[in-house]
Amino acid sequence: MSSVRNLSRRAFLARSALIGCSVAASPLLTPVSFAAAPWDTRLVVIVLRGGMDGLDVVQPYGAPEFAALRANLTSGVNNGALDLDGFFALNPALAPLMPLWHREELGFVHAVSTPYRDKRSHFDGQDLLEAGTPTLSGARDGWLNRMLGQLPGVEPRTAFAIGHGEMKLLEGPVAVADWAPDADLEISPQAMQLAELVMQDDPAFHAALSEAMMLTGSGGGAGRGKPHVKVAAFAAEQLRGDTRVASFSINGWDTHRQQGRNLNRALERLSDTILTLQSGLGPEAWGKTAIVAMTEFGRTVRINGTGGTDHGTGSAMVLAGGAIRGGRVLGDWPGLEEADLYDRRDLMPTGDVRAPVAWLMRGLAGLDRGSLQRVVFPGLEMADDPGILR
């Protein structure tokens, strides 16, 4: 369904005017008109829920310990992985993204994590990732919402939280729009004709009805097919217009068993998503877009008894888009000797996952460093600019 927090009286009346429309499923909670944001770049944040194994996605095959640690997984360039820079290789399930790498529109940051440590709970890890704070104590809103609060001219349509799952990183006092695929108006053709007749003399109400049909897919706006492709297609459609921020999740990264098969499926969804965004945005908007995909924690460096990996600490983040200066694997590589590991079991995080995102915000929307470190990501030390943007 589609909705906008902080519903106005007029939007409520517009929604109520639809005869036969299911109140719970009505998409008319979106504003009738929107103001363009005062910046022209786009930011897409994808939460990879379940704990992505960064060591399998961006494989450090040049590390002498890697082959022995991952002996039961088909890793490395001799097993189909795609060489990136002579040290790191890309999981072959992401092969469709290699043209972006060669155009320097795809990059990675390795050995990063949130401040979360040791307990390795999906729920707490994801909550902290979306809160963007050092701890969960007192966290009441998400870092994307706090970012919007630092910018002028923000309207609900400026940012979209997309999908069926809750997107806590957009929760907060700044109103944003919501949409989920396969929303159903539950309205008959006769009721639709009556609604159009009632609204024909009110341009604002008629616009709201037209938008409702578009959001539910009746106008073809959301696309058809796999849910993650629908989400990406809808996001791209909005980002071609006034929307400047979109966020959604991709599930399926909890690879405790049969990692080779299960991770490939998740990576294929991620690849589909990025390429759908690229094609849907078109060259002009794609050139102004930065996509960041991040996860709550990584996984153990050693394989468990069921051919998978358990909850860990350090992982990798994915960067894509025409605004990204890619073709690089960023980050301070910690090594894979046992003494180099976190708790002698996990990839040691050498960077805060929030810092690259803060630098993206600074470059895309012009936020000052003080606001980013105090308000958007409290307690963050951004360190030096890694030069993520073109």
Automatic annotation (TrEMBL):
Keywords on record: Signal
Tree of life domain: Bacteria
InterPro entries: DUF1501, TAT_signal, TAT_signal_bac_arc
Keyword Signal: yes
Signal peptide start-end: 1-35
Residue runs in coiled coils: none
Listed NCBIfam families: TAT_signal_seq
Protein name (record): DUF1501 domain-containing protein
Organism encoding this protein: Sedimentitalea todarodis
Lineage: Bacteria, Pseudomonadati, Pseudomonadota, Alphaproteobacteria, Rhodobacterales
